[in-house]
Amino acid sequence: MIVVPIKEGENIERALKKFKRKFEKTGAMRELRSRQAYIKPSVQKREQKKKAIYIQKLQREEE
């Protein structure tokens, strides 16, 4: 459970922003979206390899 302590006189907008940031860091929404459809482990590994190759290519071009 995410807890955001609010100090006396603190703006509620700032507290909401802190809550949103903490919620985003937990990755709950990403996990929910990924669980909407089953992806086979072999397909996941293939996608991870493709992403790693793409990132390496970008890093090589940057050098």
Report on the structure:
- The chain has 63 residues and is mainly α.
- It has one domain.
- 70% of the residues lie in helices and 0% in strands.
- It is built from three helices and no strands.
- The longest helix has 22 residues.
- The radius of gyration is 19 Å and the shape is elongated.
- The N and C termini lie far apart (43 Å).
- Give me the strand/helix succession: HHH
Separation of the first and last Cα atoms: 43 Å
Q: What Rg is obtained from the alpha carbons, in whole angstroms?
A: 19 Å
Shape: elongated
Summed up, the helix count is: 3
Mean pLDDT: 94
Specify the biggest β-sheet: none
Structural class: mainly alpha
Oligomer: single chain
Extended strand count: 0
> Which bin fits the share of residues in helices?
55-70%
Query: Number of domains in the coordinates?
Result: 1
Helix and strand topology:
Layout (H helix, E strand, L loop, with lengths): L11 H15 L1 H7 L6 H22 L1
